[in-house]
Amino acid sequence: MAHRSYKSKSPKKTVLSTNKTFTGTEQFVTFWGVRGTIPTPEQNRLKYGGNTPCIEILNISSQKHNSLIFDAGTGIIKCCENALLRGDRVFHLFFSHMHYDHIIGLTKFLPFFRKDCKIHIYGQAKFSKTLKEIIQHFFIAPFFPVEFYQLPALNNIYFHELNGLSQIDIDGIHINIQPLNHPQEALAFRIWSLDKRTSVVYATDHEHGSNLDIELEKFIKETDIFIYDSTFSESNYKNHIGWGHSTAKEGATLAKNANVKNYIIFHHDPSSTDTYLEEKILYEAKKIFDQSYLATEYQSINVSELHTLLTPK
User: Fold this and answer.
1) Range list of H helices, the chain
2) Which is nearest to 291 in space by CA: 254, 258, 260, 246?
3) Is-contact 101 205, C-beta < 8 A?
4) Does Ubl conjugation count among this protein's keywords (predicted)?
5) Would the CA dihedral through 243, 45, 100, 299 be positive or negative?
């Protein structure tokens, strides 16, 4: 396993088979959790989903498949169940940051409770604590009955700190890294396909209005899928300035300026019903950038097919 880093409804299990004969490589993104802050099980929020953030990027070639997981909100529960059914025993888990809605699913991250899995964890050391210490503090009495040292996978958990890194390679997958404007900072990731023809940007927990907006626009330039923190409508944002989140209008503006192919509205506010997401949030985005879509739980997108369909011949 090669690591190279550089400084600076009822849920449906989507089991992707690798028996298909590929002429090249394919890149998929699956949305396992799309809600921000807290899970929302209410009926009028189930169309787009109530689990907190977790996405999976799967790269498939004729020789192998490679899965990368981003954030461990409650969405990671179905994500890891699906991966284990697929036969995965090596896991690469990236954290944008360590706020509760992005880590709470670790308590049900099944690979932690097996001895036959290897888990690589990527994130930032913060507040004089190593990445390992931060995760250890999550599994501690009296907040959880199983402490970190009791996890069956303990000897197969590996930590990789991303502080100061601008990119990293994992088994041939190239990932760019960009800081975001969020309390205690968050990270955005641009994940490339094996053949580097397509890319997905995961940029959640960012508040517009700082110099980082300029850097983010460069970072996402011409990506195939831009997943962005679009928590608030323009009117709601006025009551939440400084909270570290953005709007669909700002996301659409970034997408348009950076010439991205598709913009995915993500990190839905817990108070946003399905109707509000469609009639207010999505409406504000589409006025600026037509290729705007609402992130939907359990949806898988073949990024390579989108690239083929949308690239001028």
Assistant:
1) 76-86, 131-138, 212-219, 234-237, 248-257, 274-276, 282-286, 303-310
2) 260
3) no
4) no
5) negative
Alpha helices in 65-179 (DSSP H): 76-86, 131-138
Q: For residue range 71-97, list pLDDT tens digits in order.
A: 999 999 999 999 999 999 999 999 999
pLDDT value, residue 162: 98
Q: Are strands 118-123 and 90-94 parallel, antiparallel or unpaired?
A: parallel
Please say whether the beta carbons of 120 and 153 come within 8 A: no
- Answer whether residue 310 shows pLDDT above 60: no
**CB neighbour class for 8 (10 Å; exposed up to 12, middle 13-18, buried from 19):** exposed
Task: For residue 102, give both structure tokens.
Answer: 């992005």
Going by pLDDT thresholds of 50, 70 and 90, the confidence category of residue 132 is very high
Rounded distance between C-alpha atoms, residue 87 and residue 92, angstroms = 14
User: Could you identify the residue written with the tokens 């517009």?
Assistant: 208
pTM, two decimals, is 0.90
Q: Count each helix (H run) and each strand (E run) in the chain, helices first.
A: 8, 15
Domains and CATH numbers, the chain: 25-310 (3.60.15.10)
Tell me the mean pLDDT in the region 265-270.
Answer: 96
